[in-house]
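User: My notes are a mess, but here's the protein and zinc ion's SMILES. Can you give me a structure?
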Amino acid sequence: MTTEALTKTYNIDPFVQIAKNVDSGTFNFKDLFIGFEKLSAVQTIFGKKTDEVLSKLKVEVFPRKGFMGVSDEDGHIFASKYYLNEGDIWSVYLDAVHELVHVRQFFEGKNLFDPAFSYVDRPTEIEAYRLGVIEARRIGLSEQEIFDYLEVPWVTKAEHVKLANTCNVAMDQINISPHKSPKHGNIRKKKS
Ligand SMILES: [Zn+2]
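Assistant: No problem, the inputs look usable. Here's the predicted complex:
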């Protein structure tokens, strides 16, 4: 039986809601990602400024396949309409937390797309993924599910394993054999 993955519910706090059936356009972060300012993980990112930052933050929903990212021009979040509406809620949730780390990094003046580093070695990515992995565990993902979440189309298998190691995934619990994550098949130009 493999139905468990379809029916499994994660421990996402009841005060959190993520909008569905969103059309393309520009939205207030707090209108699409409700309750995120109450998450400890998010408060870890922004501290006392959490509510102030999230209240001003915009999300640009674009009408193409892809995922989420942060603009390196003004620090707003962008997100694929299809990913928001059709992606697994836990994946969208974890990506939102990940992107909020990049929002803070942007306002600190960090280069989110520093070409001196590969994706899995870039310090801004490592910080964002490490926080995401901790949050993934908190909402009940298994180590295997976390490992699969870290698989993205633009990194090699070796880079995927390296990223998982860097993020302290319990590799002794992982089956590394190729696994089709829901993210496969999507392509985007640039992701932070
Ligand atoms: Zn990132």
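Residues 4-173 form one domain.
User: Great, I'll file this with my notes.
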